[in-house]
Amino acid sequence: MTLAEWTETAQVWSDPPIHELVNLDAFDTIDTHRELFQVVTPIKIDVFERYLEGHPNPDFVRFVCRGLRDGFWPNAQTPEGVYPTTWDNSDRPIREELHAEFLREHCKAEMKAGRFSRSFGTELLPGMYSSPIGVVPKGDTGKLRLVVDQTAGDYSLNSMIPRNQCGYTKLDDIQTLGEALLAYRELHPNDELVMFKSDVQDAYRLLPMDPMWQIKQIITIDGQRHVDRCCTIGNRWAMQIFNAWMGLVIWIAINVKGITDLFAYVDDGFGFERKGVTLYYKPYDTWYPAKQVRLLWLWDELGIPHKKSKQLYGDVLTIIGFDVDPNRMCVTISDNRRADLIAALESFIRLPANARRRHSLREYYRLAGWCNWVLNVFPLLRPGMCELYAKMAGKSSIHAQIQVNSALVRELGWMIEHLKTAEGVHMLESKEWSAEQADLTVYTDASGKGLAFYSPAHLTGFQSPLVARPKQVGDSQIFFDEALAVCSALQWASTLNPRPRRLVVFSDSDNTVAMNNTLKCKPAYNSILLHTCNILISTGIKFRVFHIAGVENVVADALSRWENDKAMALVPGLRVLPFIPPLPALGASER
């Protein structure tokens, strides 16, 4: 599912709770200072709305258009009696004069754009909240940016937005782009392509907030108070708001303007075009790939700002931090980016002197985001994040200190070793292939008596007694055994000469099928996935697991129950051999 497709089924989120609508202090402040609380956006809402008349999710379209006209509420829940009417948490000092001067200039620019109000003095008015601010480098550009910390302190704005209520947005990623490139190559194998990328200027700041939220977004600079009227990157719901709008913009580009194979990752729209197919974009006096110009024309119609320096194209182009080559059909991660991630992982699990390893939930989330990013190029490293997510599960306090346990050290260490040795080039190839396209097919099963797998091509079955499972498996022993049988079949297939390029395994366990095809499972079973991915990484085997009904999996079922006579009757000439399940899949160390 792409971001544009997501909008077709996306759900709206909540309006301000009832007690916010009867917050007399806030209403009185807004009513008596209307010049401070304005809904501002450069977006041409009527044009935007007209282009969406044929969208299959009209409720969502109306919701987003209402947000553009009246301001967005960030799905905040503010239980009555829990939060004070007014709260000032803006006393974080700005210690460097360079940063202080940047804030003054930034404030002037935001006031000129209408996104900050004029100063209304040094004191908060009833109903207002003010969060701490800071200044940080803006990536590797050498520039600075404002940070509004809506998570810090008691009664923070982000504490009003429970993390478990944060909605799901499908960001278009390298996998999405890769699938489109593969589909195009099926039809046009010899076309030479270029990549393009267009950046939306000001991004989140284009979108207005509801005045009932604006009153909680007071920015304090040099003691002077300003109302921040627009969406800010520090808000927990900001990405959901932006992607709701950006997803609809991309939907218009695809479904109304006919710009095929177009995607977006936050404020970057990107895609590919045939080399030499260009159009002239007069405002920049430049010829660009035709799709890119048509996208810029749409943005101009909708009032979306952009600037020339951020409109890029080329035979190889950096998309989401990866170099994409649509002609070699490969994606590359730079050595520097890989080294940075390795250093971050090593620092995270390093044991400080005379102390336990602990990190805040915020640091866990930051590392998880970074690891998810690298899965675009190294998808088989996903099992290395199992314990990381388990440690974060059920926690909501962003400052909570979470201990780094031995399982997490082991899994992140596993990721580090593969990152150090893996090729930095990922070839784009289809993940969707059928069982009929496999070079080898194996059937697996487990019972209360044993494990088994069966290869029709070799007229051979294999069986093993049950083995001792890790203690944390508990009562889910059959699931562990079913998964172990699949891993054992892969281990055996990897030793064949010639080795199968594509291997299909059939299992009658739905959980086992899902675990192997998503590379996700509970920690108790992750040793199996870690070993599975070790084999896949070292051999290059393409591996898929499909479901088979138990009543059809008769040979593997019989072997798992040690009913060898039955299995041989079903398959005349069948050989039956013993096997030992791979020890690393049981949690033993690999050497």
Q: How many domains, as an integer?
A: 4
Task: Tell me the total number of β-strands.
Answer: 24
* Total number of helices: 19
Summing up helix and strand content along with how strands pair, one would put the structural category as alpha+beta
> In which order are the strands of the major sheet placed?
23-22-19-20-21-24
**Second rung of CATH, namely the architecture of the largest domain:** Roll
User: Uncertain runs with pLDDT below 50, 5 residues or more?
Assistant: none
Helix content: 25-40%
Question: How big is the Rg?
Answer: 28 Å
* Oligomeric status: single chain
Summarize the structure in words.
The chain contains 19 helices and 24 strands. Strand 6 (218-221) and strand 7 (224-227) form a beta hairpin. It has 4 domains: 3-167 and 204-245, HIV Type 1 Reverse Transcriptase, Chain A, domain 1, CATH 3.10.10; 175-201 and 249-332, Alpha-Beta Plaits; 353-427, 2-Layer Sandwich (Alpha-Beta Plaits); 435-586, Ribonuclease H-like superfamily/Ribonuclease H (Nucleotidyltransferase, domain 5), CATH 3.30.420.10. The chain starts with a helix and ends in a 13-residue tail after the last strand. The chain is globular and about 90 Å long. Helix 11 packs antiparallel against helix 12 (361-374), helix 15 packs across helix 16 and helix 15 (477-493) packs parallel to helix 17 (526-539). Strands 23-22-19-20-21-24 form a 6-stranded mixed beta sheet, with helices on both faces. Helices cover 35% and strands 18% of the residues. By secondary structure, the chain is α+β, with helices and mostly antiparallel strands.
